[in-house]
């Protein structure tokens, strides 16, 4: 069964614009990630250059035992994003 997952649960006026986020480039990778998460509040729902970004995904429960090495997790994608700041 495929289930649409929507993780945006922030009120419209409290959505953070990621252009306002400040990351200390001297911090460790882990601290950069924590700082980003703490500032954005919800990485599935934010603003970018005035546009609302609402990330959702489809969870496929039919193939839970299949290892998917070709798909990156949100954490992996955030790490790539922060490394390239």
Side by side, the strands of the main sheet go: 1-4
What order do the SSEs take from the amino end to the carboxyl end, as H and E? EHEEEH
The dominant shape is globular
The portion of residues forming beta strands comes to: 15-25%
Polypeptide structure, described:
By secondary structure, the chain is α+β, with helices and mostly antiparallel strands. It has one domain (2-61, 68-83). Helices cover 26% and strands 21% of the residues. The chain has 2 helices and 4 strands. It has helices at residues 29-40, 74-83, and strands spanning 2-6, 45-48, 51-54, 56-60. It has a two-stranded antiparallel sheet. A hairpin with a 2-residue loop joins strand 2 and strand 3 (51-54). Helix 1 crosses helix 2 (74-83). The model has no long low-confidence stretch (mean pLDDT 76).
How would you summarize the topology of this molecule?
Elements: E1 2-6, H1 29-40, E2 45-48, E3 51-54, E4 56-60, H2 74-83
Antiparallel strand pairs: 1-4, 2-3
């Amino acid at each position: 069964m495929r289930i649409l997952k929507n993780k945006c649960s922030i009120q419209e006026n409290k959505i953070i614009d990621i252009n306002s986020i400040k990351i200390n480039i001297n911090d460790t990778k882990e601290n950069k990630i924590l700082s980003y998460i703490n500032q954005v509040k919800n990485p599935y729902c934010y603003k970018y250059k005035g546009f609302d970004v609402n990330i959702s995904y489809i969870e496929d429960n039919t193939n839970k035992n299949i290892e998917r090495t070709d798909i990156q997790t949100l954490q992996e994608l955030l790490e790539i994003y922060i490394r390239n700041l």
